[in-house]
Amino acid sequence: MSTLQSLAGRHIVVGLSGGIACFKSAELVRELTREGATVQVVMTEAATQFITPVTMQALSGRPVALSQWDAREPNNMAHINLGRGADAIVVAPASADFIAQLAQGRASELLALLCLARPRTGEHACPLLLAPAMNREMWSHPATQRNTTQVVADGAVLLGPAAGEQACGEVGDGRMLEPEELRDELIACFQPKVLAGRKVLVTAGPTFESIDPVRGITNHSSGKMGFAIARAAQEAGAQVTLVAGPVHLATPRHVQRIDVRSAQQMHDAVLPRAAAHDVFIATAAVADWRPAAEAGQKIKKDGSGQPPWLALTENPDILAAVARLPDRPYCVGFAAESEDVARHAREKLTRKNVPLVVGNLGPATFGRDDNKLLLVDADGERELATADKLTLARELVREIAQRLHRHGAEQP
Ligand code: C5P
Questions:
Q1: Ligand 1 pocket check: which of 317, 341, 343 to mutate, most ligand atoms within 8 Å of Cβ?
Q2: Ligand 1: does its nearest atom lie under 6 Å from the Cβ of 358?
Q3: What does the pLDDT look like over 78-97, one tens digit per residue?
Q4: Can you tell me whether residue 321 is helix, strand or coil?
Q5: d(C-alpha 190, C-alpha 125), whole Å
Q6: One domain for residues 377 and 277
Q7: Which residues are catalytic?
C-alpha cells in the first residue's frame, strides 16, 4: 500500500497563542509532520504558560521561535524570515486577545508581527488560518465577534471554532477544532479550487438488498473510492452531497452525507437532487437485483433439505436514470470489472449515455487503499496509474473539471 503524504514539501508555521487548547497543538504538529510537512513553531509568551517550547521543539524538530529580539537571526528579522519561507501560517489556538491584536494590526509579539508581515498577495502569498479557542462567553462577546469579522475581511481564514464541552466546564461555541480536523483543513487549503462554485453529487459503497429481517444481498465495495472522490471534490471547492450505502467510513469534512441501504433508497435519494447538481459521480456498486419480496420473518429451514426459492427483480439503474433527465448534470459512471476493463467501460459509456466512464478492476481494488483507473470517453482512454485512492480521486476531480470546462456548452 502506498502511503500518501498530502503535505510533502510544504513548510508550515504553527503559531500558538495562550489557551488550554495548546495541548492539542502538540498533536497538530505531529499530524502535519506525518503528512510530510516541515513545521516551524512560533509561540507567544502566554502560550509558553500552557505548554513548553521544549515539547514543541521535540515534536517539530526545530527550535521554537519566541521573540523578535532573538539575536541568533543573522539579519535580526525573524518576522520576515519566518513568513517568507512558509506555505501557510496556522495559529492554533488563536486566543481572543490574539485575534484582537490582529484586528488592530498590532505587532508587539513575534507571532502577531509575523502575521502582519506575511505576503498576502502575489505568487508568494502566504495564507493565514486561525483556529479560535476560548470560553463561549469570550467567543460570543461583541468585541471578539467584531475583531473576528475584521480579521476575516483582512484575509484570514477561520477554522472553527466548534461547539462542545469546554475546559472551564461550560458547553458552547469556542472549542478549538481537533488536530486531525485542522490537518485536513490545511491539506484542503493547498488543493487547487478547480470545482469552485460547483455542486457535486456522489454515490458510494455497496447497497444491501434485504431477503428477510436478518439476511440480504450485498457486495464487497468498501465505499473508499467514493468517499475519497467526495473529499477531493470538496477540497477542490465544490459543495458536495454524498449518498452512501452501508459503510463504516467517516464523512469527509463539509460534505453533506445521506445514508441509504438499498438500491431503491439510493435511487430515491439521488433522483430528486440530481438536476440541482453540476456533476453526478456514480461510484456506488449498486446491486443489480433485489429479492422480489422481502420476507416479513426470518426464513427458516424446513427440514426438507431444499433451499428456499428466491425470486429476484431488477433494481432501477440510478446512473442511467440521471443521464435521462432533461437538465442532467455531467454524469460520470464507474465500471468495476473482473477483466477487460476498457471494453466494458466503453460499452457502459454508450449503454448509459454518459460522457465519462471510469474503469477499474473490482476484485483487485475492493476494500483496498490503492487502485488504478482507466478513464474512457468519446476522445479515447487515459490511465491514472496505481496510487492511493485519495491521490486518484484528486486526479479524477481535475480531469472532470477540465471536461466540464471543455464540454460546458454541450451540457444543458
Ligand atoms: O454495468 P453497471 O450497470 O454495473 O454500471 C456501473 C455504473 O452504473 C456505476 O457507475 C454504478 O454506480 C452505476 N449503477 C447505478 N445503478 C444501478 C447499477 C449501476 O447507478 N442500478
A1: 317
A2: no
A3: 778 887 889 999 999 999 99
A4: helix
A5: 12
A6: yes
A7: 168
pTM: 0.93
Place of cell 505568487: 123
Does 119 lie in the same domain as 17?
A: yes
| Cβ–ligand 1 contact at 317 (below 6 Å) | yes
Beta strands in 60-170, from DSSP E residues, in sequence order: 88-94, 128-132, 157-158, 162-165
Domain limit, last residue, from 154, 171, 189: 189
Distance, CA of 84 to CA of 82 (rounded, Å): 6
Tell me the per-residue pLDDT of 269-307, one tens digit each, with 9 for 90 and over.
999 999 999 999 999 999 999 999 999 999 998 889 899
Whether residue 184 sits in one domain with residue 205: no
Q: Whose CA is nearest to atom 5 of ligand 1?
A: 335
Contact (Cβ atoms closer than 8 angstroms) between residue 220 and residue 367: yes
Q: Indicate which residue's Cα is closest to atom 21 of ligand 1.
A: 317
In whole angstroms, how far apart are CA 258 and each of 129, 201, 243, 334, 389?
30, 11, 5, 20, 21
Given the CA of residue 336, which atom of ligand 1 is nearest to it? 6
Ligand 1 in reach of 315 Cβ (< 6 A):
yes
Which range of residues forms the domain containing residue 58?
11-189
Shared domain for 89 and 214, answered yes or no, is no
